[in-house]
Design goal:
- The structure is a single chain.
- The chain has about 350 residues and is an alpha+beta fold.
- The chain folds into three domains: about 15-80, Winged helix-like DNA-binding domain superfamily/Winged helix DNA-binding domain (Arc Repressor Mutant, subunit A); about 90-250, Endonuclease, Chain A (2-Layer Sandwich), CATH 3.30.870.10; about 265-335, Arc Repressor Mutant, subunit A.
- About 50% of the residues lie in helices and about 10% in strands.
- Strands 4-10-9-8-5-6-7 form a seven-stranded mixed β-sheet, with helices on both faces.
- It is flat, with a radius of gyration of 23 Å.
- It comes from Phytohabitans suffuscus.
- One of its GO terms (molecular function) is DNA binding.
- This is HTH luxR-type domain-containing protein.
- InterPro entries: Sig_transdc_resp-reg_C-effctor (IPR016032), TrmB-like (IPR051797), Tscrpt_reg_LuxR_C (IPR000792), WH-like_DNA-bd_sf (IPR036388), WH_DNA-bd_sf (IPR036390).
Length: about 350
């Protein structure tokens, strides 16, 4: 392995639709410099075929340089393009993939032959969403490739969801497992409680919404919503995007359904969960309960193992589905009544 290159901020490639193996191979090359494919495979403990597939994907996106596939990936060294150029390359890729997704199966591959209106910025996109939501009657589809959301986005999104579900519009939402520190779990739990359908995928190709299968909005840049959205109204294009959503939905998982028997929480577990749901940190919750932070962490880890989930976000959804979590603000009422409702 070469010398570690310090000071390089390597962006996540997975959030742009790049496979995990390719992300890992890119990080290896960006961190340790030029290497042969066999060296990368040895360093990462990956099979040679997986490294070759990852390099092919990175070459297609323009994120690595090296010998061409026709000469064999073992013949020469591979190097990563500068991390600073990666995001721009992925943005250019996203701009070309949006029309491709909309034209798949329509027989029209040229962008100019599919009607698409550009909504120039986030404000225009939100105004258009508000108008479309107001007349939705049957189904709302949403695909969100972000792992974290701003408070502003969550507030607007939850209001839209509540309005649609209150009018008995079917709402299906696809997302990614949240990043550490993301505060969207409470919003997601409320969305599910109101009747929304939610699934998690390992990766998602676009950020988009589909309204009653008549209109589709696809973000120009999923990491910079200020760049606006493409609006598709062509029936064949919208149908193609609906099909894309359906494929992603069928491969995603409902985090509430883990195939486990009913779990009865101990008094300690109930207390830990209630405090965390009310906004406490691990440290403040542990202090209030008179236990160490390590004990609290072990308690949560045990719960996650029993539910068969991988993170606290999924645990919150699973507990909420079982009505095992006391929503913030109700704990005091339940205590005053002398027990659980």
């Amino acid at each position: 392995m070469g010398a570690l290159a310090l000071g390089r901020a390597v962006p996540s490639l997975v959030r742009w639709g790049v496979r995990a193996d390719a992300d890992l191979v890119y990080r290896c090359l960006a961190s340790f410099g030029t290497q042969r494919a066999a060296e990368v495979a040895a360093d990462l403990g990956l099979a040679a075929r997986r490294v070759r597939a990852a390099l092919d994907e990175l070459v297609e996106v323009g994120l690595v340089r090296g010998e061409t596939a026709s000469r064999g990936v073992e013949d020469g060294g591979w190097s990563a393009v500068a991390p600073a150029a990666v995001v721009e390359a992925l943005r250019r890729r996203a701009l070309h993939r949006v029309p491709a997704a909309a034209t798949a199966g329509t027989g029209r591959r040229e962008r100019g032959r599919v009607p698409a209106k550009l909504l120039p910025d986030l404000r225009a996109t939100r105004e258009r969403i508000a108008r479309l939501v107001a007349v939705e009657r049957g189904e709302h589809l949403a695909m969100n490739p972000e792992r974290a959301f701003s408070t502003d986005t969550l507030t607007i999104g939850s209001a839209i969801d509540a309005d649609l579900l209150g009018r008995r519009v079917r709402v299906r939402s696809l997302g990614l497992p949240p990043a550490d520190g993301d505060r969207s779990s409470a919003y997601t739990a409320e969305f599910v409680r109101l009747g929304g359908e939610y699934r998690l995928a390992d990766r998602l190709p676009h950020k988009m919404m589909v309204f009653d299968r008549r209109v589709a909005l696809v973000a120009v840049d999923p990491l910079d919503l200020e760049r606006g959205s493409w609006e598709f109204t062509d029936p064949a294009a919208v149908e193609s995007l609906v099909a894309l959503f359906a494929r992603q939905w069928s491969g995603a998982k409902d985090p509430r359904r883990n195939g486990v028997p009913t779990v009865v929480l101990t008094q300690r577990e109930k207390a830990v969960v209630a405090l965390l749901a009310d906004g406490h940190t691990d440290a403040t919750a542990a202090k209030q309960l008179g236990m160490s932070t390590r004990t609290l962490t072990y308690t949560l880890r045990g719960l996650m193992d029993r539910f068969g989930v991988e993170n606290r976000f999924q645990l919150g959804l699973a507990l909420g589905a079982m009505r095992a979590v006391t929503p913030p603000g109700l704990a005091a009422e339940e205590t005053a009544d002398g027990g659980e409702r």
